[in-house]
Design brief:
single chain, about 375 residues, alpha/beta, inorganic pyrophosphatase (n-terminal core), Diaminopimelate Epimerase, Chain A, domain 1, 2 domains, five-stranded parallel sheet, five-stranded mixed sheet, 15 helices, 12 strands, about 15% strand
Length: about 375
């Protein structure tokens, strides 16, 4: 018998039921390329079955934090009762899912992040990393799992053009989220790249035809496109990647792409400045981890700074944007270190944390920063081979 990701068919059936009974459907996604692509695939799949999406919501990480947030639920409660589908987030939102249920939402979580002990009491949770999931491959992007869900949802109504359209997004998101290019992902990337070359999605087509990318081979074009789109800036409620991948007006798209190019160049310079500033601080300290933050640092760029720090110093890097009362951080670690397990040993000091072993994030009250750093150093020193 062919193995299927746990609860995947249940999720497909529940979405199908919501479409048939004309329930309100809310799509809720993380604001990176993986989250945005997941939302687009679900929206288009639901639309192809004659269903409608009542609202799409992407939280602003800097203001609200990561995942399903109380700010979002306050905004969305006017739509209850409704089916709330959270993609690329949710697996760590135990309290928020409880609140969502109390407000009258049915909740489906489709996530690929590490399970932090307990699983939220959503109606349905689809995550290959949860206990009891026997699917052999665990390295999907959220978009990869969403694609499998819509395959089950659409069945023989999945046309070749729709499949190709979805696989383009799966390939982009899988590469963007740096998921392993093996097994199921290898198939998705190879097929998706084949469709990407002759994409009929206006945003992708115009991006790949842009003058400043003309001299590059397709793989490099795609890599540069991902780099420019894979930022979490939420503007008019929607992140860059969502706006580019759903726009249809050529003139509007051309302006968006050139604006992105200019912003990318400015951001590259700003990342260099921030990384240099961090480096000057790091070399003055003889510490086993990097733990740096600043009020002046731009939140969307701290992931790049953390990656540079890991590459240059080979130490677990915790880089954060310091705000009035709280800080929002990102984590990048060298091989052999599991950032989620490491933070889990100090979880009482943070508001939220989670992600992938090599790339994750946290939100913390500023009064706990010193204690968190001390705890991380202690736990890292205790076991430098956290797996």
């Amino acid at each position: 018998m062919k193995k299927v990701i746990k609860n995947l068919k249940k999720a497909a059936n529940r979405i199908s039921k919501a479409i048939e009974s004309k329930e309100k459907i809310i799509l809720y996604g993380d604001a990176d390329l993986d989250g945005a692509s997941s939302v687009i695939i679900l929206k288009e799949a639901i639309g192809s079955l004659g269903g409608e999406v009542s609202e799409i919501y992407f939280p602003d990480r800097e203001i609200e934090g990561y995942g399903i947030t109380k700010t979002a639920l306050k905004h969305l409660k006017k739509l209850a009762p409704a089916l709330l589908i959270a993609v690329d987030c949710g697996i760590g939102n135990i309290e928020e899912v409880k609140i969502a249920k109390e407000l009258g939402f049915s909740v489906i979580i489709i996530d690929h992040h590490k399970v932090l002990g307990k699983i939220p009491k959503a109606d349905i949770v689809v995550d290959p990393l949860q206990k009891g999931d026997n699917y052999p491959f665990k390295g999907f992007s959220a978009t990869g799992i969403v694609f499998k869900t819509v395959e089950a949802l659409l069945g023989d109504k999945m046309s070749e053009s729709l499949r190709g359209s979805f696989l383009q997004l799966v390939a982009l998101a899988t590469i963007a989220d740096m998921m392993p290019k093996v097994e199921d992902n290898k198939v998705y990337i190879e097929e998706g790249m084949m469709y990407l070359k002759n994409s009929w999605r206006p945003g992708i087509k115009l991006f790949l035809e842009a003058n400043f990318l003309k001299r590059y081979p397709i793989q490099e074009k795609v890599s540069r496109m991902i780099s420019m789109m894979n930022i979490r800036d939420v503007e008019d409620k929607f992140p860059t990647s969502f706006r580019v991948l759903t726009a249809t007006d050529s003139k509007e798209l051309e302006n968006m792409i050139w604006d992105l190019k200019e912003k990318t160049e400015i951001k590259r310079e700003r990342i260099r400045e921030m990384a240099q500033e961090a480096e000057e601080r790091i070399i003055k300290k003889e510490e086993p981890i990097i733990f740096e933050g600043d009020e002046s640092w731009d939140y969307p760029l701290i992931s790049a700074v953390a990656s540079i720090a890991v590459r240059n110093f080979g130490k677990p890097s915790f880089v954060f944007k310091k705000m009035k009362k709280e800080s929002q951080g990102t984590v990048r670690v060298p091989d052999g270190v599991d950032s989620v397990v490491l933070m889990g040993k100090c979880k009482d000091l943070v508001i939220t944390y989670g992600g992938h072993p090599k790339a994750s994030g946290f939100r913390i009250k500023n009064k706990n920063l010193k204690k968190f750093k001390a705890c991380l150093i202690k736990e890292y020193e205790k076991d430098k081979d956290i797996h």
